[in-house]
Design brief:
By secondary structure, the protein is mainly beta. It has 2 domains: 52 residues, no CATH class; 401 residues, no CATH class. The protein contains 6 helices and 32 strands.
């Protein structure tokens, strides 16, 4: 071999010895997810070096829409329930990517995303990174104070839950219900592997109420925050955001609350933010790129009362009917509590409600956007968000600059279906997604809906993901 060729070979070998600072600088300039993956897998040294640096994150660079795998050779809505594969759609470029999920997560329900990690709801929830396959365990559902036990042998009534607001009544609740919508939205204070630590805040259904709870990745329990009622009426926390080192939540009365995890406690944003006059079906909190707090209200058409989220509101002790389920005697021994077999337990058995008619057709018709004036503590409606685009749904709400990232439409809201109460029956849901133009109120369909044979049921429901390789 000539000296010239030897020199070239030596030069090629030295690529693995690039200084970490230079590697990190190059990595930060990569926009496309697939290019970032290829960059990291060049060699073990590059992978390990970049893992030690600040993780390459694309939450401000791209938004992928995670869709169920579809195959027109299979029945129903494709292979959404039968495949470990998911489609990831790059909406800005109309490109699709296939990624495989772990077999163990095949039946888990995705109920949120943040920092590129998916929150997969099952008996032992996990954070799952779809790009790297990484998993981080979260505390089991049985560590919630109201969840007294899990009994797999009692089919259709696997979870024993106590409702202190009903005098300590015990409810035997089916696995399908609990592991479908018990936790329906999350927010995280940081990337789950962050050196400063990460706290995960969630909204969860504790029977008839939507509560706030938090945990730490790798921790041993969930902690419920206190429940603040309004004149005896039900309060549901609808959305959470981490802003300026604190968690903020909004309830169905348009009240903004601050979560103090040290106590733990919740309090109203003080001085009190004026309540909005408008009524919405869903509310979102969004942190803008200028670090301002925005509130977005979502309005649906043809909305009907759905009994899934209110199992017990119309029931008194001793009644023999419930919202689509059935009441049966439950003989369960719990090692933490003495259980009286005569206690009334309402069982939600989702396998028995096939004839239920309370699954209305629904669609989004409007979004209304407000911005918080921190000087006056007032919400002011804004008719335009300029060159920004918002991404709303089960994900942690995100804001993106369309000037910095081509392909996304300015002054628009990209939204997915997050009507959790309707999803639980798996008869309708997942289809209510599109692009809302704030300029004229029109809604543009996402072309991906045409992939599915049953357009009224896209399961599992699509969710926005901000890819992260860490």
């Amino acid at each position: 071999m000539s000296k010239e060729k030897e020199g070239k070979a030596e030069e090629r070998r030295n690529w693995s010895e690039l200084p970490p600072e230079l590697l990190n600088l190059i990595g930060r300039r990569i926009i496309k997810v697939k290019d970032a993956i290829r960059f990291r897998v060049v060699c073990k040294t590059w992978w390990e070096t970049l893992a030690e640096q600040q993780p390459l994150q694309f939450h401000q660079s791209s938004a992928l829409l995670m869709l169920p795998y579809c195959s027109h050779n299979e029945q129903g809505n494709g292979a959404g329930d039968n495949s470990c594969c998911r489609l990831f759609m790059d909406v800005a470029r109309s490109q699709y990517h296939h990624l495989d999920f772990e077999q163990a997560l095949k039946q888990a329900n995705c109920r949120g995303s943040a920092f590129g990690w998916l929150f997969m709801l099952q008996r032992i929830p996990v954070l799952f990174n779809p790009l790297t396959g990484g998993q981080i365990s979260l505390p089991p559902l049985t560590t919630f104070p109201e969840v007294l036990g899990y009994f797999p042998e009692t089919v259709g009534a696997e979870y024993l839950i106590v409702d202190h607001d009903y005098g300590g009544l015990l409810f035997a609740v089916g696995k399908k219900y609990v592991e479908s919508i018990y936790i329906d939205r999350i927010a995280m204070s940081a990337e789950p592997n962050a050196a400063e630590g990460c706290v995960l805040m969630a909204t969860c259904w504790v029977l008839s109420k939507r509560r706030l709870a938090f945990c730490r990745p790798g921790g041993d329990k969930w902690t419920l925050l206190p429940y603040l009622s309004v004149g005896g009426g039900p309060v549901h926390y609808q959305n959470i955001v981490f802003w300026r080192n604190k968690f903020y939540a909004i309830d169905n009365y348009n009240r903004i609350l601050i979560c103090d995890l040290a106590v733990p406690n919740v309090s109203f944003l003080a001085p009190k933010v004026r309540l909005l006059p408008a009524d919405f079906d869903t509310r979102y909190l969004v942190v803008g790129l200028a670090d301002e707090l925005m509130l977005v209200g979502r309005s649906l058409a043809e909305r009907e009362e759905d009994a899934v989220g209110a199992l017990n509101e119309q029931h008194d002790a001793g009644r023999e009917e419930d919202a689509g389920g059935r009441v049966i005697p439950a003989h369960i021994e719990d090692d933490r509590h003495e259980v009286d077999d005569q206690s009334v337990r309402y069982v939600w058995d989702s396998d028995t409600d096939d004839e239920c008619e309370c699954c209305p057709n629904y669609e989004t018709i409007k979004f209304t956007v407000y911005k918080l004036n921190e000087e006056t503590n007032q919400w002011g409606e804004i008719k335009s968000i300029g060159d920004y685009a918002l991404f709303l749904g089960m994900n942690t709400s995100a804001c993106l600059s369309t000037q910095d990232h081509s392909g996304y439409k300015p002054d628009c809201i990209y939204f997915t279906d997050d009507s959790f109460e309707k999803h639980v029956r798996r008869r309708r849901g997942g289809y209510d997604m599109g692009i809302y133009h704030l300029s004229d109120g029109t809604i543009e369909s996402l072309c991906c809906i045409n992939l599915y044979e049953n357009p009224s049921l896209v399961w599992p429901p699509p969710v926005w993901v901000s890819p992260a390789i860490n």
